Amino acid sequence: MKFDPCMGVVPVRQPLGFRYESVAFGPHPETRSLDAIRPSLRDPDCSGPDPVYAIVMDVGRPEIRDQLKQRMLLFGAVIYASGQLGEEPVRSQGHVHHVSSHSGWSPPEIYEIWEGSAYVYMQEFVADNPGRCYAVLAKPGDKVVVPPAWAHAAISADASDFMALGALCDREYRFDYEAVRKRKGLAWYPIVTQDGKIEWAPNPRYEKTVLDVRLPREYRELGFTQRDALYQQAARDLDQFAWVSEPATYEKIWKHFEP
Questions:
Q1: Do residues 16 and 82 lie in contact, with contact meaning Cβ atoms separated by under 8 Å?
Q2: Does residue 251 sit in helix, strand or coil?
Q3: Structural domain span for residue 98
Q4: Beta strands at 53-57 and 30-32: parallel, antiparallel or unpaired
Q5: Residue 168 in contact with residue 82, Cβ under 8 Å?
Q6: 10 Å Cβ neighbour count for 226?
Q7: 4 within some domain
Q8: Burial class (CB in 10 A: 0-12, 13-18, 19+), 115
Q9: Count: domains in the chain
Q10: Does any domain span residue 156?
Q11: Is residue 39 part of a domain?
């Protein structure tokens, strides 16, 4: 690995999944088949790797496990196969987070890239007008925040390589795919060019919009840094991430938030 997330949770490429070192904990991986994500693809009849990705939720080391539960937080991890889904690179299904019963909000999320490189794509709404749209290009160690209620997806930026990431999430995580599937995907599709780069094609089921492609930034207003592994920062001071499960505490920031 080019980056150590300091959790003892290690991506495995064959078969797709994870292994847990030392005292690290986590469940058996769940895989997502190509058939499961076809409704959100530009070409739902395409061929590609199967399974597309493997996911584990509630993983980590025991020292802050009880604190995570008290804060209604958890860490998850995903590993994506190499290859393409038709013209698109391997990616997750676009989704919105369900509203959590304890906060009354559709919670935000922090992605941290572990292997490969990724575009974290996000848009404000799943409606005729998708609002602001961003694609943040992230490499190992980079962290990207998805704000509350935004639709989003993780996309491999290099179709020739595997991609793995971790995430800090609300413990009541649930993924809503229905609205995205009705529009056959998010507002922009990533397309792999002949030279292996990513270009973006608009989804005609949305109104015309602009895609802002950018690099990760420092999130000083949210109290954490790009420098250290996310799990290390959480172990030092989990309170600084209270806004993930209690987003109302940062309501003013979310109104004008830029990833």
A1: no
A2: helix
A3: 9-255
A4: antiparallel
A5: no
A6: 15
A7: no
A8: buried
A9: 1
A10: yes
A11: yes
* Backbone phi, psi, residue 189, to 5°: -100, 135
The CATH number of residue 25's host domain is 2.60.120.10
Place of tokens 């495995």: 12
pTM of the full structure: 0.96
The 8-class DSSP code of residue 179 comes to H
Place of tokens 């895989």: 31
Residues 1-14 have pLDDT tens digits of 579 999 999 999 99
**Cβ-Cβ contacts under 8 Å for 147 (sequence gap 6 or more):** 108, 122, 254, 257, 259
Residue 3 lies in a domain: no
Tokens for 247, please give them.
């987003």
Residues 6+ apart with CB under 8 A from 106: 96, 97, 98, 99, 100, 148, 149
Percent of residues, the chain, with pLDDT higher than 70: 100
- 244: nearest Cα among 152, 165, 143, 171: 171
Q: Of 49, 50, 11, 4, which Cα lies nearest the Cα of 29? A: 11
